[in-house]
Amino acid sequence: MVDEGIVLGHKISCRGIEVDRAKIEVIEKLPPPTTVKGIRSFLGHAGFYRRFIANFSKITKPLCHLLEQNRPFDFNEECTEAFKVLKEKLVTAPIVQPPDWTQPFEIMCDASDYAVGAALGQRKDRIFHVIYYASKTLNDAQVNYTTIEKELLAVVFSIDKFRSYILGTKVIVHTDHSALKYLFTKKDAKPRLIRWILLLQEFDLEIKDKKGTENQVADHLSRLEKGQSLPIDETNILETFPDEQLFAAAITAATAMAAGKSSELPWYADFVNFIVSGIIPSDLNYQARKRFQNDVKHYYWGEPLLFKICADQVIRRCVPQEEQEDILHHCHASQYGGHLGGNKTAAKVLQSGFYWPSLYKDAQIFYKSCDRCQRTGNISRRNEMPLQNILEVEIFDVWGIDFMGPFPSSCGNLYILLAVDYVSK
């Protein structure tokens, strides 16, 4: 009876699924590539075994940049280090387990600012055995998603990646963002979230909230902003705390004060403390207490962020005082801000997924303090240029021409030229 064998480039044995060492030895002896074609060939060979490599997207990121169009070939130290690390990862690739079709599947997924990660596995004797690693870097548009959109994107990515394994079976999805559980029962949400939720309707999913410290398998795959791996503290985290430790917001403020930052508590500190500990502020009268209990129902705590279900049924992140001015600047005075009025600036902040109670008031103050708006805005009718009717006679007699740019290069082009005939349009 055969104990092990090579099937489609993988070594199959009673221990699980391994890489083919003969292929790895060939890759290990490859010299650093000197052309774009060589990099593409190396990444193609290494990508064949990416299911065995955690954080594959992060490791290959410097090499992938060299494949971009119109980019000079510069195989620098960062690329050399990525080349060496990837070969080491291939040599020390772990053994993954084959799927057991009689057992339920579990997916651990997580998202960070720059990537999403997922791991498919099954539990045997209460131990999670990995079947498949997957990770994906976010493009320029996805990087601008809100936190809850990135977390749901991680779920959609993992479901699509592991579709052939989980279709027709019940799947437990572990995520460290508690607001996702609410989204699946929500009737109204942003169109993008609704489309993703509809895509997930064909699967039998059970969403479980899991702390990032417990969700280490996927959490590690997505943390691209960390320069190096940190040692994992395996000390058990207490689920019960003495009363003096319940006020997480107060502890955060004390830490900020020790670091030389503002010690002012965020405006939502009372909401956080109530959600975490169930304690209502003692200085509230009966009417204020009743209003507080009614308002807190619209807030969800996803450590370390607080989210609110606004009146338009969109979930937005609650912003502390020290971040509000930066957000207003980006939504009003940045290159894409447009220097809109106070109300439109506030609407743009809400559209970006942020909220705080004094948003409209702060937006008006910011607008009135903007030097450029005060110099060029509110032109009186007396100072306007006189309007003249354009005589339209024949097709192609009168044209309106405008151009925009520069934009990010696309096929070597930087500008858009628009020409409109006033008669035919």
Kindly summarize this structure in a few lines:
InterPro entries: DNA/RNA_pol_sf (IPR043502), Integrase_H2C2 (IPR041588), Retrovirus_Pol_polyprotein (IPR050951), Rev_trsase/Diguanyl_cyclase (IPR043128), RNaseH_sf (IPR036397), RT_RNaseH (IPR041373). It holds the Pfam family Integrase_H2C2. The chain is α+β, with helices and mostly antiparallel strands and 425 residues long.
Describe this structure as you would to a colleague.
The protein is 37% helix and 18% strand. The chain is an alpha+beta fold. A hairpin with a 2-residue loop joins strand 2 (10-13) and strand 3 (16-19). It is globular and about 90 Å long. The protein starts with a strand and ends with a strand. Residues 212-217, 219-235 and 237-263 have low confidence and may be disordered.
Secondary-structure-derived class: alpha+beta
Bin the strand percentage.
15-25%
Radius of gyration: 27 Å
Characterize the main sheet: 5 strands, mixed
Q: What tags apply to this protein structure?
A:
425 residues; alpha+beta; five-stranded mixed β-sheet; four-stranded mixed β-sheet; 37% helix; globular; endonuclease; hydrolase activity; nucleic acid binding; RNA-directed DNA polymerase
Q: What's the SSE blueprint?
A:
Layout: E1 5-7, E2 10-13, E3 16-19, H1 21-28, H2 36-47, H3 56-65, H4 77-91, E4 105-111, E5 115-124, E6 127-137, H5 140-143, H6 147-161, H7 163-166, E7 170-175, H8 179-183, H9 191-199, E8 204-209, H10 216-222, H11 248-258, H12 269-277, H13 286-295, E9 299-302, E10 305-309, E11 315-318, H14 321-332, H15 342-351, E12 354-355, H16 359-368, H17 371-376, E13 399-404, E14 416-421
Parallel strand pairs: 4-7, 7-8, 11-12
Antiparallel strand pairs: 1-2, 2-3, 4-5, 5-6, 9-10, 10-11, 13-14
Helix pairs in contact: 1-4, 2-3, 3-4, 6-9, 14-15, 14-16, 15-16
